[in-house]
Structure formats: structure tokens, C-alpha cells
Input
Amino acid sequence: MAYRKRFGGGATKPLGGNAIVLGAGIGGLLAAAALSSTFRNVLVLERDSLPPTATARRCVPQARHVHALLASGRAAMEDLLPGFVEELLGLGAITGDALADIRWVVDGHRLARGTSGVPGILASRPLVEWQVRQRVRDLPNVQILDHRNVTGLVGDGEAVSGVDVQHRLGGPLTEFVPADFVVDSTGRSSQSIAWLGRLGFRAPPEKKLVIDVTYATRHFRLHTSALGGDSGIGIGPGPSSPRSGFMGRQEDGTWIVTLAGYGIDVPPLDQDGFLEFVRTFPAPDMYDALAAAEPVGDAVRYRIPTTIRRHYSAADLPSNYVPFADAICSFNPIYGQGMSVAAVEATILRDCLHSATTNPTRQFLRKANRCIDGAWNLTVDNDLRIPAVPGRRPVRVRFANAYASRLDRAVSVDPAVGSAFLRVTHLLDRPGMLLRPATALRVFLASRSRTR
Ligand SMILES: Cc1cc2nc3c(=O)[nH]c(=O)nc-3n(C[C@H](O)[C@H](O)[C@H](O)COP(=O)(O)OP(=O)(O)OC[C@H]3O[C@@H](n4cnc5c(N)ncnc54)[C@H](O)[C@@H]3O)c2cc1C
Output
């Protein structure tokens, strides 16, 4: 296989031939940007119809719900596509400090206000995806084709040689598209395991947590002074207050409001029920702002039964095949991590392709695994604080959660602890940073004082 020869001889910057990315979601597009600096041609195949404007599309139904772009994801996107943040702001996205400009309440504790230095950005998912798509489409060696449904891999027990594609708008029924390198970014319902199984590869170990989270989302027009000039408010879940929600300004002047409940606690879609759910939050801010607001459009729902992590780094894979983004790990979206982890993975992929001398696939999966670890543990640990979430709580989780209860109290007193907490939730720092002696002491002292 030409690809394997190219990476075999200790080359420092391999120049590949044709790479294919399956799926033109945020993950696939950013992977294409990463590949474009190494491969001569990059082809992105997408089954959906890609709209010419920043609108939600059929195959990404989650795009109708709030999509937080974390500071780590913002930085990684800017790294991959220089100028991206300015362009997004030019299209109406709103930026600010994640603590000074957004109100946060975590398990009933309001974060003390301060300046965190963590840059927040508010934009709809369709706008972020559309702008990424424009930038990637402009790359001279990238082509994005929609209405192409990938149905399987072609290859042998060592490498893939291409993919089978069904045209959804006429054309030949199935076409073989050859490739030197393939990235699967088809999202959480990726068929990689089945496809690789047909080539003789064993399924990777998989972890699942049943979270049974349901989202309900609606847009509103708010009075200009509704949140006193703040750009949003987030209500985070915890054991004494498992309901969560986020309300934030969007580029079109409306405010998006997403509510989430665990298990049978399903947020209603009708206006009265929707507001009643908001009224039960441990802080009145969102309800007060929405009570006199004008709804825009209907509310929509989305259910997330499980989080899934596939440990591809522990499996044998073809040397030129990389699962990517949600195809590797699909998080609880309440914590807003998916796009940002995808963006960080894309920078890792780019760097591995540039520097790897032997097997960039393995190197990518090992490094991506480390990045996923932090994000996964953070959210799984917090989900396991929620009584409705079934699952074993081993000693590590019980310790982490006892500490989290102190942390929740401390963030309401000490803005420095709040900033450290936001740096971790924005995936700028690893969760272990909250256990460093200086921070742990602040957490201990602050959690003993009267909290808000
Ligand atoms: C309700 C909800 C809310 C979320 N909120 C946030 C948030 O606040 N912040 C955040 O960062 N992330 C959030 N996420 C996660 C985020 O949407 C994803 O992690 C992120 O978009 C990366 O996904 P992806 O590109 O891997 O997959 P997707 O976005 O699912 O894209 C996969 C693409 O592959 C295409 N495809 C699938 N199969 C095929 C095939 N066989 N052939 C060709 N194309 C195919 C699909 O049509 C789609 O375009 C949320 C997710 C959900 C469900």
C-alpha cells in the first residue's frame, strides 16, 4: 500500500495522496482542515444536503439545541483556521469573559463574579458549522461533496483502500472511491465497528453510561435589559438540583434557551410547562427574564440515552484508518464538550501526520485518548452524582464527588476558585489542577464559609 510505504522510511513530513473524510459535521470538517496540510487531495463525503446558509440540517438534529464552544475548542479552531474567531464575531457571535459576562449556578450555588480570563463565545451551532465549512471549502486541496452516503470500507486485514459510496441524488447506485487515508467522522452512530469487523478487525472495548437526558429548546425575544447586560446564564446539574439549562444570546438577536432533565424528568415543550420547568431552577434569573419574553418558533426536543466511549487506542486498526470526534466518544452534551474535543483532536491529528515516522494512526489515537480522558472523567463523575443515573460509584468517583460538593460551595465564595473551575470545564486545564495544594486549600477554606 503506497500510504504505508510513505510513512515507513522515517520521513519527517510525509506527503500523502488522497485522503477521505466521512461526514461533514464539525468533526469531519476540522479533520479535513488537519489533513489538508499533509495530503495532496482531501475529499469530504456527506450524506446530508448541505445548506448554502447557516441553517440547521436534517442529519444533525442536535444543531437546534444550544451549542457551547469552549475556550479550548475556540483556540483549536483558531489554530486550524487562522482568523476564524474574528470572522465568527463579524457574523454576530458574541464574546466575553466566561465568568464576568455569564452567570453560573452549579448545584444551587451561584459562582461568585470575577474575571476568569477564560474567553467565552456564543453562537448557534449552524453558524459555527457553516463558517467552518466556508473556511474548509476555501482550502485549495479540499472538496466537500454532499448527498454521498458511505456504506462500507474496502481493504484487507492491514489497510483500507477506499470506501463504497451511495449517491443519494441519482448517479450510479454505488461507487468505489479509492483513498490512501480515511477518517471516520460520521458521529455517534458511526458504523466503523461493523465495517472494520467485515475486514477482520475486532471491536474495541467500549464504555457506556446510561444518562437518559432529555433536552427541550426554544428561542425567545427578550427585553434588552433582561439579564442586566450579561450574555447568558447557565444552571449546572448536581445531586441536590439535577435539572439544568442554559440561556444565551445568539447572533440573530434572539436568545436560545435549552432545558435538560435526567430520567423521567423530561422538560415540557408547551410554553406553560417550559416556563414552569425554568421556575424550579435554584436561581430565579432565567425565569424572571423569560416571564415577559416573546417566544420565537416552537420548542424542540432531543433525547440522549447514553454516553459512549470506544477505546480504539486499545484496538488493532488498519494503519491508515482513523475514527474521529463523536465516532470515538459521544459525551453528555450538557457539558458542551463535543465540538471542542473534536477541534483539539484535529490539531493532534495534524501534528501526528506531520511528525509521525511510523504509525500516525496509533499515535493520534494514543494522544487523543489522553485529551478525551479528562473530558470524559469530568462529565461521567458529575453524572454519577445524579441519583437518577444508574451505575457503580467506585472509590475514585466517590472521592471526586465529595470534593465536587465542596468545590460547588467554594466557587460561590471565591472567584479564583470559580476561575480555576471554569478553566477545567473549558478543557484548558486537566481536572487534576483543581486538586493542586494551593487550589485545594482555597476550596477547603471557602467551602467552610457561608455560601450563596
Ligand atoms: C443535543 C446535543 C447538544 C449538544 N451540545 C453541544 C454543545 O453545547 N457543545 C459542543 O461542543 N457539543 C455539543 N454537542 C456535541 C456536538 O454536536 C458534536 O460533538 C460535534 O458536532 C462533533 O460531532 P461529529 O462531527 O463527530 O458528528 P456529527 O455532528 O453528528 O456529524 C456527523 C456527520 O456525518 C454525517 N454522516 C453520518 N453517517 C454518514 C455516512 N454513512 N456517510 C456520509 N455521511 C455520514 C452526518 O450526516 C453528519 O453530517 C451536542 C450534541 C447533542 C446531541
Residues 2-69+128-204+311-381 form a domain with the FAD/NAD(P)-binding domain fold (CATH 3.50.50.60). The chain has three domains: 2-69+128-204+311-381, 208-306, 393-448. Residues 22-28, 45-48, 59-60, 62, 65-68, 149-150, 185-187, 215, 302, 304, 325-327, 333, 336-340, 342 surround flavin-adenine dinucleotide (CB under 6 Å). The longest strand covers residues 294-310.
